[in-house]
């Protein structure tokens, strides 16, 4: 394990870099995915069409293609940003489609009578959603959202490989291909880094699941 | 607090409040509402009765536009129903609705069920909304269970909470769609008692129900529907003892046998 021990600082910075890609993508994809899910159940037909178009296109497109579009397509349209920003934005867009579908399945698990009763007392669409439907949908949504986000954690390596650099994956690649360390110890170190993140997230998820279960 | 003090129901008794004119509604090929003309005056209690699938629920639901109509007009208190958006939400706040399946908000306490509308729609302060909600819960006999969740209450109790939740908005009219038909027999009376009480206090009510006892004590008028149309309208006494249409005779013959 010498290559790991000797390069702990590199690993540490890669770990932080991965965490930052993951953190931003987590927040961004949850917000964007919730918005798209709201579109998909909205009373406005054009918003519904946009929402389902978004999901169909993004979900059926490989992540690498989404990233290519961001990093090379957008500059052709005159939009310029760092690879890091493009990478994170691509991962947010890609993950939002899955977040949307997880939330929508949760919304469908809430009986139609709940939304009807909310409308009947005069709550407009947004309040019906935020006060009545989403809080109840949350319970059915947490487990699938958890899987979606853990898949995103792993996809962050694709973003790293894509040229963002500096993340856990890139540290591994750098130590092996550029500096010639042997693969098994280096990649074991990388794997441990990802494992720490996903296991911590899994534990957090279990806590959240218990919380929403109690809060009916 | 009584309905008279809290809402304008007793003022202008006898004026038209809900007016449906030539209302038509289709579900695909099915003509669910045919040429519906119906006027409900302030303070009036109208019972809607008829065989399954005759359009009673649909009629009820068009009055707060949970169901849209194809043509015709519906007026509430002199105003046509708004089509959508904020105005529609504001209209729905004026029309109380009680469902067969209660539909209490499962993630909120009984008290929160009743205060949600007043706080979020009327902008009432939480303390005032709580106070008013407790008065209403007192009135329907559930005040001691205010901190519980819906699932912890019996069906009859849940339905009484649903009535309190609708009343909390100070509606001009209350719609009831078979409020007791999902209830065990021993709980039906406790809900009907609350409804009779409301009727006596002057609330305008449209009630879909087959409870003839309620119709006889509380209703001013019975509207009989079949196949999407209003076939007969009469006082409860006349309707039950001396129905004029064959459809109504046939229908009453069936329900009286049970
Ligand atoms: N959303 C809908 N889509 C299609 N058809 C519907 C819909 N809602 C009601 N219908 C149909 O419209 C007709 C009238 O239904 P409605 O629920 O108003 O009857 P009802 O008199 O309330 O019957 P019940 O006594 O069974 O409650 C029925 O034939 C029903 O199948
Ligand atoms: Mg019905």
What are the main properties of this structure?
heterodimer, A: 216 residues, mainly alpha, MetI-like fold, 0% strand, flat, B: 258 residues, alpha/beta, 4-stranded antiparallel sheet, 10 helices, 10 strands, globular, disordered N terminus, binds magnesium ion
Instruction: Report strand % of chain A.
Output: under 5%
Fourth-level CATH superfamily of chain A: MetI-like
- Assembly context of the chains: heterodimer
Give average pLDDT of chain B, whole number. Answer: 91
- Per CATH, the class of chain A reads Mainly Alpha
Q: Summarize the largest interface: chains and residue counts.
A: A-B, 20 and 32 residues
Q: From the coordinates shown, what is the CATH architecture of chain A?
A: Orthogonal Bundle
- The percent range for strand residues of chain B is 15-25%
Order of helices and strands of chain A: HHHHHHHHH
Work out the helix count of chain B.
10
Characterise the protein shown here:
Chain A has 216 residues and is an all-alpha fold. Chain A is built from nine helices and no strands. The longest helix of chain A has 40 residues, at 125-164. By secondary structure, chain B is of the alpha/beta class. Helix content of chain B is 39%, strand content 24%. Chain B contains ten helices and ten strands. Chain B has helices at residues 3-6, 56-63, 85-94, 110-120, 126-139, 155-167, 185-200, 212-218, 236-241, 246-257; strands at residues 16-27, 30-41, 45-49, 71-76, 79-80, 95-98, 173-177, 204-208, 221-226, 229-234. In chain B, the strands form two sheets. Chain B has a six-stranded mixed β-sheet with strand order 6-7-8-3-9-10, with helices on both faces. In chain B, strands 2-1-4-5 form a four-stranded antiparallel β-sheet, with helices on one face. In chain B, helix 7 (185-200) links the parallel strand 7 (173-177) and strand 8. Chain A binds chain B through residues 43, 111, 113-114, 116-124, 127, 131-132, 135-136, 215-216, and chain B through 64, 66, 84-86, 89-97, 99, 101, 103-107, 116-117, 120-121, 149, 151, 162, 165-166, 168-169. Bound molecules: adenosine-5'-triphosphate and magnesium ion. Residues 27, 30, 32, 50, 52-58 of chain B line the site of adenosine-5'-triphosphate.
